[in-house]
Amino acid sequence: MGGGDADAGGEPAAAQATLHIRCTNGSKFAVRADLGSTVVAFKAIVAESCDVPAPQQRLIYKGRILRTSKP
């Protein structure tokens, strides 16, 4: 009877977005990711769609480099 906002485990579904990626070589592609994902998790998703391993990626959003937080 619910509104479909929960996954099979009863947890609220995370909001997702389609993000458009442009590589330095000019190639472009899109990936879907949870908006609550960490930078590390997002880099792993991007690595599945391109030839650049996550540790070698530099993600830039609105002129700022997205960094992983240090423990």
What name is given to the CATH topology of the domain at 16-62?
A: Ubiquitin-like (UB roll)
Strand order of the largest sheet: 1-2
Helical residue percent band: 10-25%
Instruction: Specify the number of helices.
Output: 1
Distance between the termini: 42 Å
Poorly predicted sequence stretches spanning 5 or more consecutive residues: none
Let me know the average pLDDT: 83
- Using only CA atoms, what is the Rg? 15 Å
State the major sheet. Answer: 2 strands, antiparallel
The CATH superfamily title of the domain at 16-62: Phosphatidylinositol 3-kinase Catalytic Subunit, Chain A, domain 1
CATH architecture of the domain at 16-62: Roll
What is the SS-derived class?
A: alpha+beta
User: How many β-strand runs?
Assistant: 4
Domain Ubiquitin-like: 17-71
Pfam families: ubiquitin
InterPro entries: Ubiquilin (IPR015496), Ubiquitin-like_dom (IPR000626), Ubiquitin-like_domsf (IPR029071)
Protein name: Ubiquitin-like domain-containing protein
Show the helix and strand layout.
Elements: E1 16-22, E2 28-34, H1 39-49, E3 60-61, E4 64-65
Overview of the structural elements:
With 71 residues, this protein is α+β, with helices and mostly antiparallel strands. It has a domain at 16-62: Ubiquitin-like (UB roll). The protein is 15% helix and 25% strand. It is built from 1 helix and 4 strands, in the order ββαββ. The strands form 2 sheets. A two-stranded antiparallel ribbon has the order 1-2. Strands 3-4 form a two-stranded antiparallel ribbon. A hairpin with a 2-residue loop joins β3 and β4. InterPro entries: Ubiquilin, Ubiquitin-like_dom, Ubiquitin-like_domsf. GO terms for molecular function: polyubiquitin modification-dependent protein binding.
